[in-house]
């Protein structure tokens, strides 16, 4: 009887892949937290001010998700080292 053994060794991930995974984890956690907080504030305002209507909760959820997305977008664009349009224009003017 022969036993089959696999001699595969797990390759270590490149450092850039680990950094990217950490950024994605941070982004998704940030998005979830901000969306939940926005919805929570919307529910509180809905109960206190708007006679239990649904729109403040949805608006709060949207604001929270938008803020989380904007922070995530800024983090990834900054990581890429890209020059935004306005920064590029300022660099051209100063030259």
UniProtKB/TrEMBL annotation:
Signal peptide: none annotated. It is found in: Mitochondrion inner membrane. It is a single-pass membrane protein. Keywords: Membrane, Mitochondrion, Mitochondrion inner membrane, Transmembrane, Transmembrane helix. GO terms for cellular component: MICOS complex. Pfam families: DUF543. The chain crosses the membrane at residues 31-50. InterPro entries: Mic10. Component of the mitochondrial contact site and cristae organizing system (MICOS) complex. Component of the MICOS complex, a large protein complex of the mitochondrial inner membrane that plays crucial roles in the maintenance of crista junctions, inner membrane architecture, and formation of contact sites to the outer membrane. Belongs to the MICOS complex subunit Mic10 family. This is MICOS complex subunit MIC10. It comes from Morchella conica CCBAS932.
């Amino acid at each position: 009887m022969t036993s089959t053994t696999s001699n595969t060794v797990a390759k270590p991930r490149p450092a850039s892949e680990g950094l990217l995974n950490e950024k994605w984890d941070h982004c998704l956690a940030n998005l979830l937290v901000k969306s939940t907080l926005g919805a929570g504030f919307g529910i509180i305002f809905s109960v206190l001010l708007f006679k239990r209507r649904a729109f403040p909760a949805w608006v709060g959820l949207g604001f929270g998700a938008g803020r989380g997305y904007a922070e995530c977008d800024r983090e990834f664009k900054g990581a890429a080292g890209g020059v935004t349009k306005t920064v590029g224009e300022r660099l051209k003017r100063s030259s």
